[in-house]
Amino acid sequence: MSFINKLISNAHTVNRLMDLVDKAPQWRKQLLAKKNELRGGSFRDAAMGMCALVAAADGTIDPDERMRVAGLICADPVLNNFPADELRALFDDNCHRITTDPAFGRAHVVQQIAKAAGKQAEAEAVVQIGIMIGNADGSFDQAEVAAVREACQALRVDPSRFGL
């Protein structure tokens, strides 16, 4: 019986994750519409923290993944309010902190993410960016979902609003 319950639970999880994938184009449009509101340093820092947190969700950040996420960051039209080299430096610093000292690095990154707490448009945008980064490789796995949920807690945003 527990096998059937687990199978049903896994099917429910897969359906929820597929819903997130389906919503990505809608969220992209929402983010682009809010682009002019997303100019502050708190959003920049939180978004780069989110990118690093999701990249490190599985416990490592391999060079290919790091380059892929950095490329997405630099090409993202929502983030082009900021100089690309500044974004990359923040992302690289966050990744370095997480890989050098996982506990303290992760704590630092979560603090960066929390800078957008209390600013609804920024907090929602940071969560949406995290989901899109997690799904960039076509697979938004459970570790990435858990990382975005952790960020939601730091942002004081209900993860269920995003299907998490």
Brief overview, please?
The protein is an all-alpha fold and 164 residues long.
Biggest beta sheet summary: none
Rg over alpha carbons: 15 Å
- What would you call the structural class? mainly alpha
Q: What is the H-and-E element order?
A: HHHHHHH
Beta-strand share of residues: under 5%
Shape: globular
**pLDDT averaged over residues:** 82
Total strands: the figure is 0
Helix percent band? over 70%
Low-confidence stretches: 1-14
Q: Compute the separation of the termini in Å.
A: 26 Å
Supply the number of helical segments. 7
What do you see in this structure?
By secondary structure, the chain is mostly helical. The protein has helices at 2-33, 41-55, 63-75, 84-100, 102-114, 120-134, 142-155. The radius of gyration is 15 Å and the shape is globular.
What descriptive keywords fit this protein?
mainly alpha, 7 helices, single chain, disordered N terminus, globular, 164 residues
Question: Which helices and strands occur, and which strands form pairs?
Answer:
Elements: H1 2-33, H2 41-55, H3 63-75, H4 84-100, H5 102-114, H6 120-134, H7 142-155
